[in-house]
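Pasting two entries for a bug report.
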Amino acid sequence: MTTQQMDTVGAGRGGRMSRQRKRDAVLRLLRGEDLDMVSRSLGVTAATLSSWRHAFLDGGEASLATKPTDGEERESDRLKARLGEMLLERELLEQKIALLEGNSGPLGRRRSRR
């Protein structure tokens, strides 16, 4: 079967199409094929094809954004705050260890229990 013949088989009315087949359909539209012709060959409505094209272009545009999305920015801020907390905690623990090792208190020089 040729690619063109495979396209005419389509998803069948009410069937599901894979992401790759949807992408290929959108690329056909972007290359200039007629919307109605692609619609008929795949057995989907022109409105469905148009919505796939719109979603495809929106996704491509979003991937070109240089500023992170709100969700990414919030997560980055949360992780930075957590990192700051952990570094501060580490520094305090290091100071505490240094103080305890310098003292002859309970963790300082111990006598053996022989």
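Entry 2 (this is the one that rendered wrong in the viewer):
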Amino acid sequence: MKEIIVTKAEAGQRFDRYLKKYMPEAASGFLHKMLRKKNIKLNGNKAEGNEKIREGDSIQIYFSEETLAKFTGRTGRNVSSVSKDERPVGKKKPSTGKREESLRRQVHLLYATEDILIFHKPAGMLTQKARPEDDSLNDYLLDYCRKNDIIKEGTTAFRPSVANRLDRNTSGIVLCGITTAGLQTISRMLRKRELEKYYLCIVQGTMREDRKIKGWLIKDEKKNTVTLSRRPAEGASPVETWYQVLDTSPEATFLKVRLITGKSHQIRAHLASEGHPVLGDYKYGNRAENDRLKRKTGINYQLLHSYELKMTGSDAHAASRMLHVIDPPPAPFRQAMEFYGLSLNERRR
């Protein structure tokens, strides 16, 4: 018999979902059958599978060691002794060459509770890996949790995870859940739009007025691009973007942008559709101007930074703290501001 004590990080999940994570090689139907036959118990009692597990709950699994090893994917190993340094998922270690190590050194913690961590992600780092050999902020998060004993030895049914994504070449704020309760809270607030997210960007051309712009976004999955339409179209999603002009120069404008909706590439494509693409953005912007920026400053990615996060919704987890996080723009962004004669503290009209 294998006994498992539920940790704080794992608490809050449905029992059957916990079991599926703990034994990923076992079919869901089989696990429910084992629950019915009392081969799996919760706190010594028969369980249905829809119970919410709590910290300190005891789970008893009446399988042989060999059977449990097969269902957990650890055949031939002692399932009761998992190294603290073992990666919870994936067999191939992410690449950590010089570039990856340089990016990791730029990551820093902005905010922490028992359930949530918020990091600064540098431009150039993936939020989540696209290939098994990639390194990402999610991998950094797992390493951070191991180093700080947030992932405990033997904990396999919950994995800390990033909760929102930024494009690879967008810098700034990324939310992470380090417990089930944390991830559930962030997901609920994102769904209810109780998170106010603001970005800073530098766009081409001179803009004078603050505006809220609307449109319909169409995504091309094959090309990983989006287009904006001013009118409804088949398969298009309505989008709204608000921006405030912080500073202007003859060549560029410094904006603070709020995502009212949150679609892929929304800020970049929406501003480009207005004739003011984000500088450094080769996908939606002006190649000639981007090449000039690169020659003068070395910057070859979009000047878009996730700058500010406000949790102002009714959720008790956030409302009790009235969370307000600001991540100042990184050095390359400030260098580009100086290049275009823009200031964060001034507002010229």
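Dev reply: Rendering is fixed now. As a check, the viewer should reflect this: The chain has three domains: 2-72, 98-191, 195-339.
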